[in-house]
Design a protein that fits this description.
By secondary structure, this protein is an alpha/beta fold. The chain folds into two domains: 252 residues, TIM Barrel (Alpha-Beta Barrel); 59 residues, Arc Repressor Mutant, subunit A (Orthogonal Bundle), CATH 1.10.10. It contains 16 helices and 17 strands. It has a nine-stranded mixed β-sheet, sandwiched between helices. It has a three-stranded antiparallel β-sheet with strand order 12-13-14, with no helix packed on it. Helix 1 packs parallel to helix 2, helix 2 runs parallel beside helix 3 and helix 6 runs parallel beside helix 8.
Length: 376
């Protein structure tokens, strides 16, 4: 493991205007009165963690949620100022902020620009108003368009749009309408995530009652690959299972995570990986505010081996054999000789150019492939 590499930082803002029907992330609606308390605890965590780790070099920062844009501009500015005082954030660092189109304000954009934020990620989800209502989103597509225009006027040009696919009742025509509407905004990056029904969400309850009609698996896979083909025609590289970028516009923060680089997490529910130790803050907002300690787990070699493989196989380039050996001390075939050979023979994996990667068919069956590599 090369501990001299710069790290990533994730900062979680758990507040939102309304909980979406599909969301199982630790986020809270109607708790705006807790924002200032939260910021003070968050600033303390950043300072104390820096005293433990030293002033490490940081090359990516990601502000996520929840909805960072429901915070006051001065609160987010205080977090970024404190982070820069505690860590060596490189001048060329990629700094991303998630944006909810329904809550974006000009003063917030100006603050982000002043604080060196250089990448925005909009939770657009769909250009179909009926689908947005089904998802319980608080914005319209018109607000997405307006928010992107606001961002460009403020000087932001590295823009991602998050879109959702395989929605209840969604067909090929509806999805392609959304993709084309997104392309019309000329984003530098698109994230197209297939809907996953998580326990404890309203969608899960509807599904259990038979009131949610999801696309059949064959139709979902067809929409996935047709999306990739359309985006490729417009110059977007399909570089990760759900992510597409114009040349030079990959999300460096997420890419480093998939390559199993260390990162620190701050805020309620935030997790980090540093020197083979996982650190996870309490999921519950109120437990975090009370100062309950994080969960600490020292990972065993079998854990880090599987995690590095699993994350890298999400990338179209796959797992770098050299990077795996540098961190784990041996090559993947020394750990999983039969599993690798079986899936290469079955056409789900391929090893070429110093990488182990999934084939297109392997992408469709990724979960099945990974089951064979799980630690015993």
């Amino acid at each position: 493991m090369n501990s001299s590499l710069p790290l990533g930082v994730y900062i979680h803002f758990p507040f939102c205007q309304r909980k979406c029907a599909y969301c199982d992330f630790p986020s809270y609606a109607g708790q705006e009165s807790r924002r200032e308390d939260y910021i003070q605890v968050l600033l303390t965590e950043i300072r104390e963690r820096s005293r433990q780790t030293g002033s490490l070099t940081v090359d990516t920062v990601f502000l996520g949620g929840g909805t960072p844009t429901v915070m006051e501009a001065r609160q987010v500015a205080a977090v970024l100022t404190t982070l820069r005082a505690a860590y060596d954030v490189l001048p060329e660092a990629e700094i991303t902020c998630e944006i909810n189109p329904g809550s974006l304000r000009t003063d917030f954009l100006m603050m982000l620009k002043d604080q060196g934020v250089n990448r925005l990620s909009f939770g657009a989800q769909s250009a179909d108003e009926a689908e947005l209502r089904l998802l319980d989103r608080v914005h319209t597509w018109e607000e997405v368009v307006h928010s992107v225009e606001m961002a460009r006027e403020a000087g932001f040009h590295n823009i991602n749009l998050d879109l959702m696919t395989a929605l209840p009742g969604q067909g090929e025509d509806s999805l392609m309408k959304t993709i084309r509407a997104a392309l019309a905004l000329e984003p530098s990056h698109l994230s197209c995530y297939s809907l996953i029904i998580e326990e404890g969400t309203p969608f899960h309850q509807l599904l259990a009652r038979g009131e949610l009609a999801l696309p059949e698996e064959e139709a979902e896979r067809a929409m996935y690959w047709n999306t990739a083909a359309l985006l490729a025609q417009h110059g977007y590289e399909h570089y990760e299972i759900s992510n597409f970028a114009l040349p030079g516009r990959r999300c460096r923060h997420n890419e480093n995570t998939w390559r199993y680089r260390d990162y620190l997490g701050f805020g309620a529910s935030a997790a980090g990986l540093y020197r083979n130790r996982r650190r996870k803050n309490p999921d519950d907002l109120f437990d975090y505010l009370k100062g309950l300690p994080p969960l600490i787990e020292d990972l065993q070699p079998r854990d880090t081996q599987f995690e590095q493989l699993m994350l890298a196989l999400r990338l179209r380039e796959g797992l770098s054999l050299a990077a795996f050996k540098a961190r784990q001390g041996l090559l993947p075939r020394a750990i999983w000789p039969r599993e690798i050979q079986r899936h290469i023979k079955g056409g789900l994996l391929e090893e070429t150019g110093g990488y182990l990667r999934l084939t297109d068919r392997g992408y469709d069956l990724m979960d099945m492939v990974l089951l064979d590599f799980l630690p015993a």
